[in-house]
Amino acid sequence: MKIGLLTGGGDCPGLNAVIYAAVKKGINKYGDEFVGFLNGWRGVLDNNWIPLTLEKIDGIQLTGGTILHSSRTNVKKIPGGIEKVQEVLKANGIDALIALGGDDTQSVTLALTEAGIPGVGVPKTIDNDINGTDATFGFDTAVAIATEAVDRIRTTADSHNRVVVIEVMGRDAGWIAYAAGVAGGADVVLVPELPIDIDHVSKLLKYNYDRGKHYGLVVVAEGCHLPDVGQVVTGAAVDSFGHARLSGIGEALADLIEEKTGYETRSVNLGHLVRGGSPTAYDRLLGQRYGLHAIDMVHDQKWGRIAVLKGTDITDITIAEAVAKNRKLDQRFFDVITDLEAKV
Length: 344
Ligand code: F6P
What we know:
Blueprint: E1 2-7, H1 15-30, E2 33-37, H2 41-45, E3 49-52, H3 54-57, H4 81-91, E4 96-101, H5 103-114, E5 119-123, H6 139-159, E6 163-168, H7 175-183, E7 188-190, H8 198-210, E8 216-221, E9 233-238, E10 244-246, H9 249-261, E11 265-269, H10 281-299, E12 305-310, E13 313-318, H11 319-324, H12 331-340
Parallel strand pairs: 1-2, 1-4, 4-5, 6-8, 6-11, 7-8
Antiparallel strand pairs: 2-3, 9-10, 12-13
Residues 10, 102, 125-127, 169-171, 222, 245-246, 275 line the site of 6-O-phosphono-beta-D-fructofuranose.
């Protein structure tokens, strides 16, 4: 078969591991031929692709980012977009597509498969928020980097007797904040799934200061809702899927904390730092397992389905189920956060 691969949405450590495994098994086991569309769905619309050979993929599973580059292109919103995709695939003799992406990218895969284009999905996001899968590759790397940052910020916060608010990505889900906050031993962990109570945050910090710990670490997810403000965004622009750029809650929260407590407070936004660099061994492995399953899905003609991790098994579900809603933190994780907090 001739198969097209693409990566859409924000990049994510482990994408190249998926590409590596899918192409390697496809060529070696099935005798497939591969093309990689560049810049996500944009590359399909523009007929912009590179051949993916064994030589091209050598060693890429170790690397961060995506060798295919990425974009947030919403084919559904482009007049004639679906027909253009059909045309380009036909012109290149492409039998099937493997789309690596989060819910936005997969909503396009779904629309294309509903229009009769053979395609399967692989879930991708550092945010770990895709419905129906227990873990997405990239999350482990993001948590490792964010945790290291929290560790490093601890020593400077301690030296200067300061509170430091550390903002992390995650969009509307608090997985990265929860995991890095707890692993890094933050005094306060704030996730979008729960409302922020500034009085409570101040009391938690004050509890420690009153007992001789003259610094504080607060980890906040970018998607948290600030009282009377809501989500904090940068600029007025939204992407082609209607998402605003979440960023800045850490700085706003630091001001509120300093005002309320009188403690000197700073903020750091880890932003894209946690998305860059090479994937952890776990993500290299998970990405390759997803890739191996995806190529089997193509040969089993599982169109409109997406690979998922259930427990320790890689299996698949419909893309419709995966994009129906986001996977959020639940009570079990809230309990971890509150059980580790001071009782104030
Ligand atoms: O969805 C992944 C993600 O990294 C989110 O955590 C974040 O809000 C967003 O992408 C940032 O996107 P961009 O790279 O377009 O700024």
